[in-house]
C-alpha cells in the first residue's frame, strides 16, 4: 500500500515538472519585440555668439534701404478696390469733307474704268479710221452700257470732228474724246442733293431700290456726307423686313452722332417713316433720311407698299428727294428697275453703287437718258467715305485716264 502511494506521488511530481517545461517554452516564444532604434535627433542650431565668441562675418550681397521695395504707406498692405468696368462710349468719327471727294477718289475709279477710255483712244489713234474701226468703237461703247441712242450720237459727232481735224495727235484725240463724253454725261444737270426745304425743317430724303444694291449702306454713308457738311441728321429705319437692317443703320448713325428711329421687326414701314419725320421736326433736325425695304421691281404689291410709305410721309411735308440706288454692275436690268421705281415714287436722283468694280461706266449716261434724272452720288468702294457727289468732269477724266 505504501508503495502504491509513493508511486502516485512520484507520477504527480513528474507530470507537474513536464507541464512547467511546456509553459516556459511557450512564454519564451511570445516575448515582446525589442523597441525600435531611437531616431536621430538633429541638434538645434547654435545661438549666435556675440563679443569675442562671434564668428567672422561672411561676405553677402546687401541692399540699401532705397533698393528695398516697401509697400505704400509703410504699413500693412491694403487690398485695392475692385475695378468697375465702365461702358465704352462710342467715339464719334469725323467724316471727310465732301468738297472734291470724287477727285480724291479718282485713282480708285480710274483703275476699273480705264478700259473704256483707253479702248476708245486706241481705236481713234489708228492711221486709217475705216467703217470696221467705227463699228469697233460702237461695240466698245455698247459693251460699257452707254446705250444705243447715246452711242449713235457720240460716234456721229466723233466722225465729224475727226474728219474736220485731219491730223490727229494723241493729245488732240484725248481732248476731243473728253469734250464729247462730258457733253454726253450732261454737265448742265442739277446734281445737288436737295436737303433744304423752302420753309421750315427738316429736309426729307427717301432712299429706295431693290435688294442687294447697297441701299442701307448708302443711306448710312449719305448721313456721313451730310454730317461732314455740318448738317444734323435723323435716320428712319423703315426697312423692317430684312433681319438686322435697323441695327446696321443704327451703327452707321452712331458713328457720326445721327439719331435712329426704328420699330419692331416686321412692323409697318410707313409707321416708322412717319415717326422719323415727326421726331426730326420735334428736335429741329436738318435732314431726315428714310431707308426703305428693298423690293423686287416685279412685285406689284411691294411697289404699292412703297407708294404708301411716300404718301404717309407726305402727311408731314413733301419729300425733297427720292434717291434710287442702282448697282452699276447690273447694266440694262438696272434700267428696267429704274423705270418701275420712277413710276411709283417719282425718282429725283440716282445713286450708282459698286462703280469701282466694273468697267461699265456708261451706265451713268444710259440711266440719265432713260429717266431724265441726274446721277447725284456714286459709290466707289466699301470704305465709309467712299460715297462721293457725282462730278462729270472728274468722272470723264477717270474714264480716259491721264
TrEMBL record:
Protein origin, superkingdom: Bacteria
Major localization class: membrane
Binding site for GTP: 209-216, 291-295, 353-356
Subcellular location: Cell membrane; Cytoplasm
Comp. bias intervals (Basic and acidic residues): 49-66
PROSITE patterns assigned: SRP54
Stretches assigned to the SRP54-type proteins GTP-binding domain: 374-387
Stretches the record annotates as Disordered: 25-81
UniProt catalytic activity: GTP + H2O = GDP + phosphate + H(+)
E.C. number(s) listed in UniProt: 3.6.5.4
Entry keyword set: Cell membrane, Cytoplasm, GTP-binding, Hydrolase, Membrane, Nucleotide-binding, Receptor
Database matches in InterPro entries: AAA+_ATPase, P-loop_NTPase, Signal_recog_particl_SRP54_hlx, SR_rcpt_FtsY, SRP54_GTPase_dom, SRP54_N_sf
HAMAP family documented for this protein: FtsY
Function: Involved in targeting and insertion of nascent membrane proteins into the cytoplasmic membrane. Acts as a receptor for the complex formed by the signal recognition particle (SRP) and the ribosome-nascent chain (RNC).
Family, as annotated: Belongs to the GTP-binding SRP family. FtsY subfamily.
Subunit structure: Part of the signal recognition particle protein translocation system, which is composed of SRP and FtsY.
Name of this chain's protein: Signal recognition particle receptor FtsY
Species this chain originates from: Streptomyces daghestanicus
